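Why do we bother with holo predictions? Because pocket geometry can differ from the apo form. Keep that in mind while you read this record for 2-phosphoglycolic acid.
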Amino acid sequence: MLIAGNWKMNGDPNTLGEFGKMIARAPEAAHNGVTLIVCPPAILTAKCAERATVSPLEIGGQDCHPEPNGAHTGDIAAEMLAACGATTVIVGHSERRADHGEDDALVAAKATAAQRAGLRAIVCVGETEAERDAGNAETVVNGQLAGSLPETLDPARLVVAYEPVWAIGTGRTPSTDDVAAMHAAIRKTLDARFPGAAVPILYGGSVKPSNAAELLAVPEVGGALIGGASLKADDFLAIALAAVKN
Ligand code: PGA
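The structure, written out:
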């Protein structure tokens, strides 16, 4: 199981108290095959990675640019994240797709860049509420997978996160049957694209301690991508401990 926390645009160098608790308690959860990752804002990558050297907690980025360097004001290269101690980067999060107009081709380029830099790429996909209501959820997600996952990716350093857009930050989650159906569909697509590879498929969207055990027990759910609940050490660790039990 892989448990990844996405802090989004939260946290600064003066507010790392919760992170200290996560480092101290990570060994409780980071065993029995559970990988724990925290993805702070880019300004904290190096600081968090330095503090986490004593801990099994890994550090990730929330986004990267496709190029390794150059005239791209405000952007961060995957190589920079790697040089600062990151092991992982999230690409194609729905907030990037919506707020910054990122399309599948750009997400594919970012996933490729992540692996070029030696990072694990967590590629996010997920339908909007309107798409689900129209009965198009699987078609939309399959289209995102087709466009965002070039066949040249190394499946050993690839993770897919299914995050229904309408479940992110809303407190709402799909039924476990709906999660199971979508994860089975994603697995079928991944098996066709990367035969024989066991690419983990995370569920994301309003995961919290009270629903983690149920969601993590769904077939083909290989972990969770957690937003709000990853800001509090107690909540993040409780979710990670639910993963240990699975
Ligand atoms: P949430 O966010 O846990 O706050 O719903 C999930 C995500 O966006 O990865």
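Residues 180 and 218 are 6 Å apart (CA to CA).
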